[in-house]
Design goal:
By secondary structure, the chain is mainly α. The protein is built from four helices and no strands. α2 runs antiparallel to α3 and α3 runs antiparallel to α4.
């Protein structure tokens, strides 16, 4: 016999659908910044003589924006951790630090095959 919670979850996933939560690799990058980077990429494929200064200006602006947004993002996270620490929620502090410092795992390793191609 299934538990009621698991039955409810299965039924709602069938009806509504479930989406896997994808964690952004660089969450400080906004949609506007991505659009600017795409515009810069398009200009780079055109002639360098016509758009050289525009590309250089956009590159410096994008880099500056990325640095400030990344700094703001880290400041928010640090302030959040300090608040949790003041409230005595060390379990949540360690959990958040673990999430922030985790690097994505690389999948797959080397498969060694013999002369016949068998693993």
């Amino acid at each position: 016999m299934k538990r009621p919670k698991s039955e409810i979850m299965e039924n709602t996933n069938d009806i509504v659908g479930a989406e896997a939560m994808i964690v952004a690799r660089k969450p400080w990058i906004t949609r506007e910044m991505l659009e600017e980077l795409e515009q810069r990429r398009k200009l780079k494929h055109q002639s360098k003589e016509r758009h050289g200064k525009i590309i250089d200006n956009q590159t410096s602006n994008c880099e500056e924006q990325l640095k400030t947004e990344k700094g703001k993002w880290w400041d928010e996270r640090c302030n959040n951790l300090e608040d949790l620490q003041q409230w005595g929620r060390y379990d949540m502090v360690y959990e958040r630090i673990k999430q922030l410092s985790r690097k994505p795992r690389k999948s797959g390793g080397l498969d060694i095959r013999d002369k016949q191609g068998i693993l």
